[in-house]
Write the structure tokens for this entry.
Amino acid sequence: MNNIDKDKLLHFFWSMLLIIPFIFALGGVMGSIALAITALAKEVIWDKLMGKGNMEFLDFVYGCLPIPIYFILHSIQ
């Protein structure tokens, strides 16, 4: 875990917090889609178009990791 970049962990952390209201408001599938769109928009709009960060594919991947975690935990119930 020490080898994971702090930026990637922050993407994962904030996405874990953001998926909760998305799922409560939109449901499981639509909330997951909303999270993926938000993670993609953050990378494309904020980082690339506005130039306020470094656009990286792995940032998007770490931002979307809460989605399979949600579905795995939801299937266990």
